[in-house]
Amino acid sequence: MELKDLPGIGKATANKLRELGIENIEQISKCELKLLEDLGVKNASEVLKIAKESIENKPPEENSTETDENISNNIIGIWKIKNGIPNFLFKAFSKTLENPEKLNDKELDKEYDKFMKKELF
Question: Residue 51: which residues within 8 A CB-CB, separation 6 or more?
Fold first, then answer.
């Protein structure tokens, strides 16, 4: 089963998920509901339920043993997508942040505004 096979995940949402490194159903099953909702996944709770059931029903040898880098807490990645920040700007901006994982949306907005003012003036 691929991402787009889940109800509520179309091509655009699948692309957003891939930008965050979420490539498969197993990774979706490890996400928090809020992450899926923030990305605009329709019926996010149902998607999460289906993904988890899909993984639970696989034989053990089909389950991946990879350790994901805490996909559910990728706040800065979600922020980038929600704000439509181009990759080249995002890369430069993210280099200026000391602890981006500790910032919330409002703090990221504020830091980005300061970054843009500094870059433009």
Answer: 6, 25, 26, 28, 29
The residue behind tokens 């942040």 is 97
Q: Let me know: does 101 contact 77? Beta carbons within 8 Å.
A: no
Provide the residue ranges of all domains of the chain, joining segments of one domain with +: 3-62, 74-120
Q: Is the pTM of this model over 0.85?
A: no
Residue 1 pLDDT greater than 70, yes or no: no
- Residue 106 CA to residue 83 CA, distance in Å, equals 12
Per CATH, the number for 3-62 is 1.10.150
22-60: pLDDT as tens digits: 888 888 888 888 888 888 888 888 888 888 887 776 654
DSSP state of 98: S
Residue 36 near residue 50, CB atoms below 8 Å = no
Instruction: In whole angstroms, give the CA distance from residue 79 to residue 83.
Output: 6
